[in-house]
Amino acid sequence: MALGERGLRLVESVTCELRAGRAPEELDDTFDELEEELLAAGHSAGLGSYRTTPTPPTPGYPQLPVAGPVHPPLRVLACPRGHCGRVEAPDDDAPHPGCRIFDQPLRTVPLR
């Protein structure tokens, strides 16, 4: 990987801090340094969308009277602890992909 030793140390530091329970917002300075290292290594997007802070869930809309129980609810797979904006479409024929930070499968989130 072209990230270099300093960048790899920053990745390890962020990973350890998150696993220990620190909130991502508390690591802004480290994320800034990591993003600089990624950009210098040629990763033009830096941390990109992975640095987004998830927005609080929006209240659901009431069910339309004509939308009976015949339609299955839509769902996505998301960060197991809600720390990042990662979202993936589920594949019913495959196991849930995992989060490499927390070593947990992505959680199922119903769409409202």
Per DSSP, the total helix count is 2
| Mean pLDDT reading | 79
Q: Compute the number of strand runs.
A: 5
What form results from the Cα inertia axes? elongated
Strand content: 5-15%
Radius of gyration in whole Å, from Cα?
A: 18 Å
Kindly report the spatial arrangement of strands forming the biggest sheet: 2-1-5
Q: What's the SSE pattern? A: HHEEEEE
Largest sheet: 3 strands, antiparallel
Beginning-to-end CA distance, first to last residue: 40 Å
Overall SS class? alpha+beta
Low-confidence stretches: none
Task: Determine the fraction of residues in helical runs and give it as a percent range.
Answer: 25-40%
Sum this structure up briefly:
The strands form 2 sheets. Strands 2-1-5 form a 3-stranded antiparallel beta sheet, with no helix packed on it. Strands 3-4 form a two-stranded antiparallel ribbon. Helix content is 26%, strand content 12%. The chain has helices spanning 4-19, 28-40, and strands spanning 75-78, 87-88, 98-99, 104-105, 107-110.
Give an account of the 3D structure.
With about 110 residues, the chain is α+β, with helices and mostly antiparallel strands. It is about 25% helix and about 10% strand. It is built from 2 helices and 5 strands; from the N terminus they run ααβββββ. Strands 2-1-5 form a 3-stranded antiparallel sheet, with no helix packed on it. Strands 3-4 form a two-stranded antiparallel ribbon. A hairpin with an 8-residue loop joins strand 1 (about 75-80) and strand 2 (about 85-90). The mean pLDDT is about 80.
